[in-house]
């Protein structure tokens, strides 16, 4: 059931006033495929733009905190934790994992998905001069805990 519609079928922000404050957590992932030489360049620390993983990590964290400004009808949330990790996958990919937590009245799935997506886009942006053929292959929710709709766990750790 779509809950972003009012009684007249118009889009609106869901009223979460009556919902209980509970611990909530969501984990999302994204994968960027690139040429093996590009991954080698990133890992060697020799990229002309500096530490690509550090910049992508910060971009993902910032994006999670601003999700409500990017996605219509998302609630502004006081996230208690945002963690973005980047994992090289030999020979030619980077897997990004974003984890968002809070104690609140609504979930953090969109924040985790936004963090993973923006980290992937930042990785692309920083490396496009050396590899325009990179592909952001997939972004998906891996898990969520807490809230009225219950827990969710993707059956595989890949999208």
Automatic annotation (TrEMBL):
Coiled-coil portions: none
Molybdopterin cofactor biosynthesis C (MoaC) domain residues: 13-147
Catalytic residues in the record: 125
Keyword Transcription regulation on entry: no
The protein's Enzyme Commission number: 4.6.1.17
Keywords, comma-separated and alphabetical: Lyase, Molybdenum cofactor biosynthesis
Catalytic reaction list: (8S)-3',8-cyclo-7,8-dihydroguanosine 5'-triphosphate = cyclic pyranopterin phosphate + diphosphate
Function: Catalyzes the conversion of (8S)-3',8-cyclo-7,8-dihydroguanosine 5'-triphosphate to cyclic pyranopterin monophosphate (cPMP).
Protein name per Swiss-Prot or TrEMBL: Cyclic pyranopterin monophosphate synthase
Species for this entry: Halopseudomonas salegens
Gene name for this UniProt entry: moaC
């Amino acid at each position: 059931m779509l809950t972003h519609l009012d009684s007249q079928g118009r889009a609106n922000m869901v009223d979460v006033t009556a919902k209980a404050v509970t611990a909530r957590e969501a984990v999302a992932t994204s994968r960027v495929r690139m040429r093996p030489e590009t991954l080698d360049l990133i890992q060697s620390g020799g990229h002309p733009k500096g530490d690509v993983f550090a910049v992508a990590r910060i971009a993902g964290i910032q994006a999670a905190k601003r999700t409500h400004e990017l996605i219509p009808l998302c609630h502004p949330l006081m996230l208690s934790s945002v963690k973005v990790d980047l994992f090289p996958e030999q020979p030619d990919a980077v897997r990004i994992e974003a984890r968002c937590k809070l104690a609140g009245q609504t979930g953090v799935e969109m924040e985790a998905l936004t963090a993973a997506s923006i980290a992937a886009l930042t990785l692309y942006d920083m490396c496009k001069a050396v590899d325009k053929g990179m592909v952001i292959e997939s972004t998906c929710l891996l898990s969520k805990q807490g809230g009225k709709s219950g827990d969710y766990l993707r059956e595989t750790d890949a999208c």
